[in-house]
């Protein structure tokens, strides 16, 4: 899924079928950062969620509008954004600081790269000229670039290395990754190896054999498979959700009820590793357009549309 990039075309998610790859042994991907002996104070606590700062007419939301949006989802630990247009790195980090949320930021593609990285540093530069990178959870270089055929795996590997070098020189010490579909990461483990952890988009809806009640188990299985393929490296599912409207994809049927079931399944499956799941997405993306691979559902993945 593309949370960003208005002109970008969606790619077929039917290519992400889980049976294309043998199921490897299941490792313990990484030590848990959070132990939860008691119930969470909120069902969304510690999870991430994706967000795009665009209006239905494709214009940019201003700082006040972004503030209002994040006020509605402040229970999440972090928010994922996709690019630097609309001055979104600055508006979202400003809004996130008000709620002690962190921001999973990035550059959407390799256009104007590595110059495009400057927007990240600019967004966290204070009046004194010093950069406070602590707001960033992760910085991603590209979203599904290999899946889209936009760049080769080799191009992306080189870009991640370059980005890490540039960002480290500016004082950023957090994770640098590239995000792609789970099937691409299984085929190209070098994308995991160059990243500080494996970052995979995974939507059960695009597998015609999957029902919403199994969305969490499906995503968790892919995360474990990717970690095994990458020598036990941690895997984060950087997008997973279910549409509430659109056309059926086999037994994967969009509806509000099915979306609720899928999100509940995802929360349950990742309850022991909440920091490894980004739910997709905050609100309906009415600026998006469908294509032959999106089942007329592209606009309708918003989880919090009724808040």
UniProtKB/TrEMBL annotation:
Note down the stretches annotated as region Disordered: 1-50
Which residues fall in a compositionally biased region of kind Basic residues? 29-45
InterPro entries tied to this protein: Beta-glucan_modifiers, GH
Q: Which GO terms describe its cellular component?
A: cell surface; extracellular region; fungal-type cell wall
Keyword set includes Protein biosynthesis: no
Q: Which UniProt keywords apply?
A: Hydrolase
| GO molecular-function term, one example from the UniProt record | glucan endo-1,3-beta-D-glucosidase activity
Q: What subcellular compartments does it reside in?
A: Cell envelope
Keyword hit for Hydrolase:
yes
Q: Name one GO biological process term.
A: cell wall organization
Membership in a protein family: Belongs to the glycosyl hydrolase 17 family.
Protein name per its UniProtKB record: Laminarinase eglC
Per the UniProt entry, what species is this protein from, by scientific name?
A: Penicillium nalgiovense
């Amino acid at each position: 899924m593309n949370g960003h990039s208005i002109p970008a075309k969606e790619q077929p998610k039917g290519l992400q079928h889980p049976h294309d790859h043998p199921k490897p042994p299941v490792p313990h991907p990484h030590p848990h950062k959070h132990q939860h002996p008691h119930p969470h104070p909120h069902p969304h606590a510690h999870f991430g969620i994706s967000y795009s700062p665009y209006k239905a007419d494709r214009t940019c939301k201003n700082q006040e509008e972004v503030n209002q949006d994040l006020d509605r989802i402040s229970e999440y630990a972090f928010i994922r954004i996709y690019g630097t247009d609309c001055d979104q790195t600055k508006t979202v980090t400003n809004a996130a600081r008000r709620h002690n949320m962190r921001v999973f930021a990035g550059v959407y593609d390799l256009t104007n790269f590595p110059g495009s990285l400057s927007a990240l540093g600019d967004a966290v530069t204070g009046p004194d000229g010093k950069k406070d990178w602590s707001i960033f959870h992760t910085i991603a270089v590209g979203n599904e670039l290999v899946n889209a055929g936009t760049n080769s795996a080799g191009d992306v590997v080189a870009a991640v290395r370059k980005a890490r070098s540039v960002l480290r020189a500016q004082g950023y010490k957090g994770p640098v990754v590239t995000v792609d579909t789970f099937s691409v990461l299984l085929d190209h483990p070098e994308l995991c190896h160059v990243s500080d952890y494996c970052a995979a988009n995974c939507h059960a809806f695009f597998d015609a054999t999957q029902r919403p009640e199994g969305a969490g188990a499906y995503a968790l299985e892919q995360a474990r498979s990717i970690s095994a393929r990458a020598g036990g490296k941690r895997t984060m599912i950087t997008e997973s959700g279910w549409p509430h409207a659109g056309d059926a994809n086999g037994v994967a049927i969009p509806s509000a009820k099915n979306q609720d079931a899928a999100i509940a399944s995802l929360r349950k499956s990742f309850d022991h590793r909440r920091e490894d799941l980004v739910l997709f997405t905050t609100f309906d993306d009415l600026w998006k357009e469908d294509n032959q691979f999106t089942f007329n559902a592209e606009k309708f993945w918003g989880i919090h549309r009724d808040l």
